[in-house]
Write a structure and sequence with these properties.
Layout (H helix, E strand, L loop, with lengths): L1 H43 L2 H4 L6 H19 L4 H19 L2 H4 L2 H24 L5 H24 L2 H31 L5 H30 L7
Helix pairs in contact: 1-4, 1-9, 3-4, 3-9, 4-9, 6-8, 6-9, 7-8, 8-9
Organism: Secundilactobacillus folii
Membrane topology: Multi-pass membrane protein
Keywords: Membrane, Transmembrane, Transmembrane helix
């Protein structure tokens, strides 16, 4: 009789742990997006702050910005508290770097791109979390396509073709739409394969928040270029 009583209890505990993990991961990812938006607004409305990214210092900031995701992911399981702080700092820096978009695109364009990105992200993250179908192959194909896209974008930096760049934006949206779903499923599975301890759960949640934040940011950037095709301030 005790065996029958314990089985439902273990299932309930597993569900509670998973729900707690998902709440932390998506909650921290959402907080990072919010901090980026606030940071972008303050920098965009303050010429003095925006000018801090001009000159040689911008290269230092750019290097730090590229290094942060690797540091956060590498330290998340060992030092989750430090990684959480670094994730939030990274979100603030990202928002500050993107504040210049306010000089290029109209407020309506930025808002449309943001709302569209949020809608696509929520739908695909939900799908990736609840679907029983394995998205590992989709994720691998999307990652390969992303590498090819990066190479093509570097080549187009020399060609400077606006049309090619515009087409790449649609490709980028497709890639990060797929990655959002596959990453959501992969991170859920990563938690389920862990020991479920508090430290492991928090560390994986931070890694997931960083990964999904990057998916959202890239989705936003590509949609911004699409919607901004005829709605820039130029």
């Amino acid at each position: 009789m005790n065996n029958y009583d314990e089985q439902p209890r273990r299932v309930v505990n597993a569900d509670v742990g998973l729900n707690s993990f998902l709440t932390k991961m998506y909650g921290w990812m959402g907080l990072a997006v919010l901090l980026s938006a606030v940071s972008a607004y303050f920098f965009a409305t303050s010429p003095a702050l925006m000018s801090s990214f001009a000159g040689p210092s911008r290269w230092i900031i750019l290097i730090v910005w590229f290094a942060f995701p690797f540091i956060v992911s590498g330290q998340a399981l060992k030092r989750p508290a430090l990684s959480f702080v670094l994730l939030m700092v990274y979100a603030l820096i990202t928002g500050a770097m993107f504040s210049g978009f306010a000089l290029i695109y109209t407020g309506a364009t930025i808002t449309t791109a943001f709302v569209s990105s949020a809608t696509v992200f929520i739908v695909m993250a939900l799908y990736g979390t609840v679907t029983k179908r394995s998205l590992a192959k989709v994720g691998a194909q999307a990652t390969a396509a992303l590498i090819a896209l990066i190479v093509a974008m570097v080549i187009n930096m020399f060609l400077q073709s606006p049309m090619i760049s515009y087409i790449f934006s649609f490709v980028g949206v497709i890639i990060f739409t797929a990655l959002t779903a596959s990453d959501s499923q992969k991170l859920k599975q990563l938690y389920l394969n862990s020991d479920g301890s508090g430290t492991a759960s928090t560390g994986i949640a931070i890694i997931g928040a960083m990964q999904l934040y990057l998916d959202f940011v890239n989705l936003f950037l590509f949609l911004l270029e699409i919607f901004g095709g005829g709605n820039s301030r130029n």
